[in-house]
Amino acid sequence: MKRSAFAAMVMVLFLLAACTAPLVVTRQPTAVPVTAPTNEQDCLQQGGAWGPQGMAQTDMCDLPATDAGQPCTDSSQCQGLCLASNTPGTGVCSPRTINFGCHDIMREGVQMGICID
């Protein structure tokens, strides 16, 4: 009797497993990479802000991100960072390509804090 009950339970589990849809994760597209100019004149011509950045205060070009405000779940989908938003599991692409300082970002749909020096 116990053997037949076990067999019936196993059969039910197999049937339930067959009825569930497979989990499909759709990968979001990656951002179009940005190559920032290495001199002030070219930076300013492209609408960037030239000046000292980060703790090292290195002169570099901070360009506006063309995908600013777009929904994202990971920074790989943005030219800058995927900043956490009020919607769980999603964020928005940052307005700039350089983002020194501390931010709440999205990484693979999970909100986390990050500090960039």
Give a short overview.
The chain is of the alpha+beta class and 117 residues long.
Question: What are the defining features of this structure?
Answer:
117 residues, alpha+beta, 2 domains, three-stranded antiparallel beta sheet, two-stranded antiparallel ribbon, 2 helices, 21% helix, 27% strand
Question: How would you describe the overall organization of this protein?
Answer:
The protein has 117 residues and is an alpha+beta fold. It has helices at residues 2-19, 40-45, and strands at 49-53, 58-62, 71-72, 82-84, 91-93, 101-107, 110-116. A hairpin with a 6-residue loop joins strand 4 and strand 5 (91-93). The longest helix is centred in the first third of the chain and has 18 residues, at 2-19. The radius of gyration is 23 Å and the shape is elongated.
The tally of helices reads 2
- How far do the termini sit from each other? 68 Å
- Structural class comes to alpha+beta
Beta-strand percentage? 25-35%
Tally of individual domains: 2
**Measured on Cα atoms, how large is the radius of gyration?**
23 Å
Give the averaged pLDDT, no decimals: 83
Percent helix, as a range, is: 10-25%
Q: Uncertain runs with pLDDT below 50, 5 residues or more?
A: 13-26
Write the layout of secondary structure elements.
Layout: H1 2-19, H2 40-45, E1 49-53, E2 58-62, E3 71-72, E4 82-84, E5 91-93, E6 101-107, E7 110-116
Antiparallel strand pairs: 1-2, 3-5, 4-5, 6-7
